[in-house]
Design a protein that fits this description.
The protein has helices at residues 33-37, 73-79, 82-91, 97-109, 117-123, 130-144, 155-181, 194-203, 214-227, 234-243, 249-261, 268-281, 286-294, 315-330, 336-350, 352-356, 363-373, 381-402, and strands at residues 4-9, 12-20, 26-28, 57-60, 65-68, 71-72. By secondary structure, it is mainly alpha-helical. It has two domains: 4-50, Rubrerythrin, domain 2; 73-405, Citrate Synthase, domain 1 (Orthogonal Bundle), CATH 1.10.580. It has a three-stranded antiparallel β-sheet with strand order 1-2-3. The protein has a three-stranded antiparallel β-sheet with strand order 4-5-6. The structure holds carboxymethyl coenzyme *A.
């Protein structure tokens, strides 16, 4: 018999169904709560609220498990290509060779952006943060493809928008960097794979030969896979909620990019490196900074530590830490930031404050050190996260539109003034 949850309110008992996911996660379905009782639930930050049923990503924060469509992140990071993972997330299964060839070929065909967009880049100041540029550029894509404004036009039209976005994001991302450097834009080279093509557009110059280092391209492939989806996090929820108003995919993803930018979410990778540089410049006294992080009067937090859902370890951080050692060794780099990061991790993991609050290094703690080794400038770190997260955002948006989910519209408990009379300005 299915379980029932009972809530007692005003002397009456109300029953609500308990639902269970395929991995035995349980939830009380309170979708009829207000109609039945007149009450709503209050859950700031949605810490206990399931906003949707989803078949894309499974995550167990206590056990440190992360699966995309049933496949473990460890296996995918080890064996798959980012484009295979994108297909898996968006369409539900790993592609056959033919499906992968068609998908790759279709993405390759759409890597160019409209020439007029170059003028948009040129209008930004050199100091513009590339995340601001990227969010604007992605939203601007909608102006070039007016047929995409109706997200439900047809499955074929939806697929075309998805392909265009997957193909163009690396071009827009690389050009945001080129523009900041005031270097000439490099056009995509369609004989290169997704990661190598991005690296080419970032680092090649028209005056020099540039060959993509396979160590760099493989490390990037792994990093993008590790970031590809993470169920209902802040930016993904943003994409779903914007999309729930039937806003187009470009607008929804642009909003997701903006949500990702914050230092508590994807912006943490930039913040981690800036923090490590600050500690390094300050003489490298790790204990001093751990003490600051624990001080509630001090706004400083240990960036790259803690996670809303992982309360044991972040499986992505475990893979990244190892990849970080590998990449630095293969590239012969000795980065003092890595030494500080390792010391910081050791001290924090032995400290009662961090232990009692289950604060562990998260995905962003070591990713910045790899990005540095790959030559990616610090301000581009969160852009890299966005390129990785794109297939997840798209998959979640597609699922939401296909399930005809209702418009997202939370309620509130009002705590403001009760009704009062308007007072003319002379009498206030
Ligand atoms: N340094 C010091 N104290 C911390 C930290 C930290 N990094 N993170 C959490 N705490 C403390 C916090 O002060 C609170 O203490 P108390 O119970 O005494 O008030 C307790 O731990 C619980 O923290 P919280 O802020 O209530 O937890 P949350 O689930 O709301 O926030 C978080 C999660 C990731 C925003 C937070 O841990 C944080 O700010 N971390 C640093 C930023 C960071 O690395 N973000 C990247 C997350 S991973 C990438 C992604 O998927 O977005």
């Amino acid at each position: 018999m299915s379980e029932i949850a009972k809530i007692e309110l005003d002397g009456k008992t109300f029953e609500f169904p308990v639902i269970e996911g395929t991995e035995n996660e349980k939830a009380i379905d309170i979708s009829k709560l207000r109609d039945a009782t007149g009450y709503i639930t209050l859950d700031p930050g949605y810490k206990n609220t399931g906003a949707t049923k989803s078949s894309i990503t499974y995550l167990d924060g206590e056990k440190g498990i992360l699966h995309y469509r049933g496949y473990s992140i460890e296996q995918l990071a080890e064996k798959a290509s980012f484009i295979e993972v994108a297909y898996l997330l968006i369409y539900g299964n790993l592609p056959t060779q033919t499906e992968l060839d068609i998908f790759t070929n279709n993405i390759t065909k759409h890597t160019l952006v409209h020439e007029d967009m170059k003028q948009f880049f040129e209008a930004y100041p050199a100091k513009a943060h590339p995340m601001g540029v990227l969010a604007s550029m992605v939203c601007s894509l909608s102006t070039f493809y007016p047929e995409s404004l109706d997200p439900n036009r047809s499955p074929e039209a939806k697929d075309l928008t998805i392909l265009r976005l997957l193909a163009k994001l690396p071009t827009l991302a690389a050009w945001s960097y080129k523009n900041a450097m005031r270097h000439p834009f490099m056009y995509p080279k369609n004989d290169l794979n997704y990661c190598s093509n991005f690296l080419h557009m970032m680092f090649a110059m028209p005056t020099e030969d540039y060959t993509v280092d396979p160590v760099v391209s493989n490390a990037l492939n792994k990093l993008l896979i590790l970031h590809a989806d993470h169920e209902q996090n802040c930016s993904t929820s943003t994409v779903r909620i914007v999309g729930s108003s039937q806003a187009n995919l470009y607008a929804s993803i642009s909003a997701g990019i903006s949500a990702l930018w914050g230092p508590l979410h994807g912006g943490a990778n930039q913040a981690v490196i800036e923090m490590l540089e600050q500690i390094h410049a300050d003489g490298g006294d790790v204990d001093k900074w751990v003490t600051k992080a624990k001080d509630k009067e001090d706004p400083f937090r240990l960036m790259g530590f803690g996670h809303r859902v992982y309360k044991n370890f972040d499986p992505r951080a475990t893979i990244i830490k190892k990849a970080c050692d590998d990449v630095l060794e293969k590239m012969g780099i000795n980065d003092p930031m890595l030494e500080i990061a390792k010391k910081l991790e050791k001290v924090a993991l032995e400290d009662e404050y961090f232990k009692s609050r289950n604060l562990y290094p998260n995905v962003d703690f070591y990713s910045g050190i790899i990005y540095r080794a790959l030559g990616i400038p610090t301000e581009m770190f969160t852009v890299m996260f966005a390129i990785g997260r794109l297939p997840g955002w798209i998959a979640q948006w597609k699922e939401m539109t296909e399930n005809n989910e209702p418009i997202g519209r939370p309620r509130q408990i009002y705590t403001g003034a009760t009704p009062r009379e308007y007072v003319s300005i002379e009498k206030r």
